[in-house]
């Protein structure tokens, strides 16, 4: 079984979510500079995480229905984080505070194990992502991401995919056509 | 008033997030609604935003320079003073809002406005977020800024932020109210 969905099922069963937040398209769940230690479950819609560097936005990750999303840096170190989290369409998320989440994780060895495998998966994904960014050919970058997450191309507008792939929207549509 | 500096900055970031979300919602309204006003001398939603942009045009460069040139070490506590509290209270939003006089140069009445007005406001909010972030490393009491309405008064940076951000919140809410009324009037949009 997938550790993330196991984890989510358990949190659902124990009714640990603190509240639900509804975001309209383009609204922000988090902005640069805030300390956001919550973990969010996306119930519907999609979100993106990005940073702004000298007026240019760099898209870092996307979140879809049934994904967990967090500003993981703030979650871990409780310090301000540069990340923005923005809704790409109308999005509903459930929220759990770090405190509640940690006490849930620590309540059983099984939960601890689940969390560890979620984090391990995340490290593997980050390594793939690092390889993406170091791939110099735009076409190869596109192919890698298409193979890994075809869902991305179903759900996310082109301009954000282009930003994620570090290319202009024009280059992306040229590559898609060829 | 005294407040932990970290808490003050986090509160101001949170209000700015809400202001940004308010502006993103306004962008989805029709231009007719955005330009509609309850009375000839009242402001439309876009005029509210334009009013904020004019203040932003003064305060954002002023705060940027003062942060860059500040040499005071940060302090755990922001103390404020009576003047800062007075100004930030007087511009902030509350339910039984009193009408205030606007300085002529800041009055946007009858300006030509369009969606670019909102884009400019959104851009200014990203700049304010960056400035709040940079302010972690300087002293919000000892760093002073000029204010737009008098050459003789200086405000503490923490208070300047409060004035600008509470003022943004006030007029975003006013703009939202104008939109609600315009929809109530069943405009042909």
TrEMBL record, chain A:
Stretches assigned to the Cyclic nucleotide-binding domain: 1-105
Superkingdom: Bacteria
Name recorded for this polypeptide: Crp/Fnr family transcriptional regulator
Biological source species: Aquimarina litoralis
UniProtKB/TrEMBL annotation, chain B:
Pfam families per UniProt: DinB_2
InterPro entries: DinB-like, DinB/YfiT-like
Protein name: DinB family protein
Domain named DinB-like: residues: 32-175
